[in-house]
Amino acid sequence: MTDLFANLWLGFSVAAHPYNIGFCLLGALVGTLVGVLPGIGTVATVAMLLPITFGLPPVGALIMLAGIYYGAQYGGSTTSVLVNIPGEATSVVTCLDGHQMARKGRAGAALSIAAIGSFLAGCVATVLVAALGVPLTSIALLFGPAEYFSLMVLGLIFAVVLAKGSVPKAIAMILLGLLLSMIGSDLETGAGRMTFDIPELSDGIGFANVAMGVFGFAEIIRNLEMSQESRDIVQSKITGLMPTRQDLIDSAGPIARGTILGSLLGILPGGGAVVASFAAYTFEKRISKHPELFGTGVIEGVAAPESANNAAAQTSFIPLLTLGIPPNAVMALMVGAMTIHGIVPGPQVMTKQPELFWGMIASMWLGNLMLVIINLPLVGLWVTLLRVPYRLLFPSIIVFCCIGIYSINNSPTDVIIAATFGLVGYWLAKHDFEPAPLVLAFVLGPLMEENLRRAMLIARGDATVFVTRPISAGLMLISLTLLVIAMLPMIRKRRDEVFVE
Amino acid sequence: MAEGNKAARDGGGLRFKVRGPRDFYGGLALIAVGIIAIWATGDLGGSRGFAFGPGTAPRMFAILLAFMGALIAIGGLLADGPPIEKFAIKGPAYVVAAILLFACLIRGVSLEYIGVPVNIPGFGLVVSTFVAFMVSIMGSSEMRWTESLLAGIGMTVFCVLLFVYLLALPFQLWPSFL
């Protein structure tokens, strides 16, 4: 326990350095700014802003990226409340009650409860990350290649279970992602795989290009199809920023429950933040005394999902920082950023660079605090930004993305690859394929293959190694159970209901 | 993007009807990707002894992908599903054209395509940003010229200030031949 405080103290002394506070503030501000723009989700925001952090020292860069991440998430909820366009999947549920509140003239209360809920959830989650960091790191040392492989299988199965739509389609997306990740030189032999003799492909496809294409460009193309006139921006002046006493009393319970649900679901690999917000909303509705009012603008319907998705966003750092496995697409971008700064994510980060590890954790808390401070006074600014018509917004986003992608490697080919994936993403959306599992599999692909090959080599070609080693067998068993449960017709029906809401 | 036409043709010509076209053609496309991947990894070595070769894992996943594709396609034949939405042409075409133009103009391209040499000099950040902005904005059905030109100039200035002066990223600003 004293260790925990000593570590957190170290973290805060790093994070409170004026430079780092500045980076954190800047990140949160820019993240919110971009996240507010409708149609740009967290992944696209982080990918777009990644180049901004290249010139910074490693600790500052990661602190700023974390700030961008929370900012983007918070910005997404602002858009949900004010325009009824979810910036991304995690704030879909916030639309339901948040926008109704805004139409009743209570946008201020909705936004401030979202900020307060997020902040409180962030506080709890930060402590959780700090507390679980050490024990999980020691578990990580027990992991061999077989265990790592099984853990990643579990993560992908989670992504399948949590994706909306049919299970076979989600599995197919996982396989497609794995396959795409194998394009390029083979790690062990250096042989070019599926490069079709194109020299630019021999290094493989960059993750940021795939993410930008599938999440950024494809979204824009899809948005262009819809008429933009239907955007329903709250025009009235936002007054009464502060929630009333009754609001605070009503949302205390949902915030607490949302935080717990979110923290638990966030640790699981496979995109917990989305499901956390859905689960928290559904749960609140179920236990509420007046479930029929949900969807008409009740404060619980904003407080619960917002707390849950923020808690989950934070605890999703746990698998990355302790095991070195990115549990979702944003964390995968973090891996990219860390690699650029010469840091290999994994259990050794905590022992070799404690100031980085704990500094980042402390900055999460600071970042959340800043979101509360900067967002409440700046709501007016975000509203102005939302009034910018989409016909001017989308070309700006495209140009910004192009420059962002190009600047990562100074490579025009990367830009072309992203454009290709934009079309692929458009096609996938037309055929009801979810891009999220594809992107996660793409990220985990190289790690999975490496561990699979190593495990097989150590076991002398015996594939039963995955079920004879106890930890690995346990993980595989959980994966199998989850998959079977997801396929059961009864559960599937319930799952669809959750997503329909 | 011929899916829509194909669906119409199959519906009339064949005895059985494709009940879930989204799943059916989606599945077929996945099978095609799987087969292409199996073909493309054909020249890579497979397992030798205990060790995986470079081709083992990709082939494994490609076969699984083709299998899942078949499963989805069969599902599309048997179960009812929504029709395929129409693919828009204009929006995607302008967006993709804008991105490609940016990629070609920013540093220039010089390659040989089927014996024809293609040489585009590097136009630099200012020109490529502005061109990409103007081309992509034409993808919108609500385009207005004056407003767009002003916004394009504004965005170009903003990007130059941000990326070149504030972030000090190494960009070539102006065309290399000037």
List strands and helices in order, with pairings:
The complex is a heterodimer of chains A (501) and B (178).
Chain A: H1 2-15, H2 18-36, H3 42-49, H4 58-83, H5 92-103, H6 107-140, H7 145-162, H8 167-181, E1 184-185, E2 192-193, H9 207-225, H10 245-267, H11 272-287, H12 300-315, H13 317-323, H14 329-340, H15 348-352, H16 354-387, H17 390-409, H18 412-430, H19 435-458, H20 465-468, H21 470-487, H22 489-500
Antiparallel strand pairs in A: 1-2
Helix pairs in contact in A: 1-16, 2-3, 2-4, 2-16, 3-4, 3-9, 3-17, 4-5, 4-6, 4-12, 4-14, 4-16, 5-6, 5-12, 6-10, 6-12, 6-13, 6-16, 7-8, 7-19, 7-21, 8-19, 9-17, 9-18, 9-19, 10-11, 10-12, 11-12, 17-18
Chain B: H1 3-13, H2 21-40, H3 56-78, H4 90-107, E1 109-113, E2 116-120, H5 124-137, H6 145-166
Helix pairs in contact in B: 2-3, 4-5, 5-6
Structure description:
The complex is a heterodimer of chains A (501) and B (178). Chain A has a two-stranded antiparallel sheet. The relative contact order of chain A is 0.18. In chain A, helix 2 (18-36) packs across helix 3 (42-49) and helix 9 runs antiparallel to helix 19. Chain A is built from 22 helices and two strands. In chain A, 75% of the residues lie in helices and 1% in strands. Chain A is mainly α and 501 residues long. Chain B starts with a helix and ends in a 12-residue tail after the last helix. Chain B is mainly alpha-helical. Helices cover 61% and strands 6% of the residues of chain B. A two-stranded antiparallel sheet of chain B has the order 1-2. Chain B folds into two domains: 3-78, no CATH class; 90-166, no CATH class. In chain B, strand 1 and strand 2 (116-120) form a beta hairpin. Chain B is built from six helices and two strands. Chains A and B meet through helix 8, helix 9, helix 17, helix 18 and helix 19 of A and helix 2, helix 3, helix 4, helix 5 and helix 6 of B.
